[in-house]
């Protein structure tokens, strides 16, 4: 034990307390929790498994009245796609996503280079209808969406900033506690590791002109603004976000199955980092993925099964004369190579990799539930 640990026997708990005391809750939290409480209660009563899917990137605001912020690349594809496959596996889904990132179902027709209007045409009576070419795909998506809506199986909540995300995650996780091991967390959001604490954030837009910029307080003052101009330069001095992933296991959702993602860009450290995260956070499964290949391959790292790669089959899409699409290529979604693929992936993957990931996770959840009930 370090002398700091001796003064404070649970550094994670005190970092948590400090974070949530000093970084205010989002205004929409109360309303979100009312919705989440009713949703969780309904599905607990109906004996359904509930998964909280997080999706999209968190922002790091530099000003309280935010004009500028730091963001990341995530579009929310992984989360939105996974949510659909969790519904297919019989889960009720709480979809906690970055506002305006991809949503389950509507993702098929949004954020594309094509507008949703390109899927429509005007019929002889002057009414808008779906183009013949897109009828079968759209009816499929529409029916699944309506089925989820009818049974209230999908609750959509949103966040923008890192602090909003953490508040929502903590509070919804605590509401999910009564579900016990029937709850799952699927943490696909790209969460910032660094942030500007509330007490070091300037109120107004940071001025680029020296004449208007507020003078930074004296050197060495730890409460000086974390983002400020000094001379002509913008200085951004971020602090680490406390590591809350362990709190999820220890305090917020001790009985739930927890699946987290590890994103890297360097193939040589991916598995090592995923294993490290598994040891450190004691989640049930860590899924490693690389920025450039994340739609084609991921690596599962778990105490239960060690290391296992999931890959989309290689091949191509083929269209028959009738226009029906089929897959030509390897049947299996898995190849037993034990490291990231050396070959380059081009175009779109043959199938959505989430269609392979989610059934594996659902089966793992079932095994955990069975083992727990013995
Ligand atoms: O949102 P997206 O589909 O563009 O990307 C998904 C992802 C890479 C953000 C996700 O698979 C992931 O790895 N999330 C965790 C990222 C992290 O290490 O914080």
TrEMBL record:
Pfam families tied to this protein: DFP
InterPro entries for this protein: CoaB-like_sf, DNA/pantothenate-metab_flavo_C
Domain spans labelled DNA/pantothenate metabolism flavoprotein C-terminal: 49-101
Region feature Disordered, mapped onto this chain: 207-226
GO terms (BP aspect): coenzyme A biosynthetic process
Start-end of Polar residues biased regions: 209-218
Cited Gene3D superfamilies: CoaB-like
UniProt family annotation: Belongs to the PPC synthetase family.
Name of the featured protein: DFP-domain-containing protein
Organism: Tothia fuscella
């Amino acid at each position: 034990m370090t002398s700091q640990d001796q003064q404070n026997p649970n550094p994670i708990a005190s970092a948590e307390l400090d974070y949530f005391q000093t970084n205010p809750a989002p205004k929409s939290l109360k309303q979100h929790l009312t919705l989440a409480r009713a949703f969780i209660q309904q599905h607990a009563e109906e004996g359904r498994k509930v998964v909280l899917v997080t999706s999209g990137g968190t922002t790091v605001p530099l000003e309280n009245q935010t004009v500028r912020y730091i963001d990341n690349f995530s579009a929310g594809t992984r989360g939105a796609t996974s949510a659909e496959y969790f519904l297919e596996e019989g889960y009720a889904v709480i979809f906690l996503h970055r506002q305006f990132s991809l949503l389950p179902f509507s993702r098929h027709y949004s954020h594309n280079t094509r507008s949703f209007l390109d899927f429509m045409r005007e019929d002889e009576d002057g009414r808008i209808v779906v183009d013949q070419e897109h009828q079968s795909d759209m009816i499929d998506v529409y029916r699944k969406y309506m089925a989820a809506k009818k049974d209230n199986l999908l609750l959509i909540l949103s966040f923008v900033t890192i602090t909003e995300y953490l508040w929502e995650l903590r509070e919804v996780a605590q509401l999910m506690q009564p579900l016990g091991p029937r709850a799952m967390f699927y943490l696909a959001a790209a969460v910032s590791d660094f942030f500007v604490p509330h007490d070091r954030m300037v109120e107004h837009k940071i001025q680029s002109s020296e004449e208007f910029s507020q003078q930074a307080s004296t050197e060495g003052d730890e409460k000086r603004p974390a983002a400020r101009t000094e001379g002509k330069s913008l200085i951004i001095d971020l602090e680490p976000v406390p590591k809350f992933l362990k709190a999820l296991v220890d305090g917020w959702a001790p009985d739930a199955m927890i699946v987290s993602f590890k994103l890297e860009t360097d193939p040589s450290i991916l598995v090592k980092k995923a294993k490290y995260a598994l040891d450190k956070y004691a989640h049930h499964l860590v899924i490693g993925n690389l920025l450039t290949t994340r739609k084609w391959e991921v690596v599962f790292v778990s105490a239960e099964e060690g290391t296992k790669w999931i890959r989309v089959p290689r091949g191509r899409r083929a269209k028959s004369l009738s226009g029906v699409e089929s897959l030509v290529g390897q049947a299996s979604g898995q190849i037993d190579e034990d490291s990231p693929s050396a070959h380059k992936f081009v175009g779109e993957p043959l199938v959505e990799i989430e269609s392979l990931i989610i059934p594996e996770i659902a089966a793992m959840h079932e095994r955990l539930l069975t083992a727990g009930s013995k």
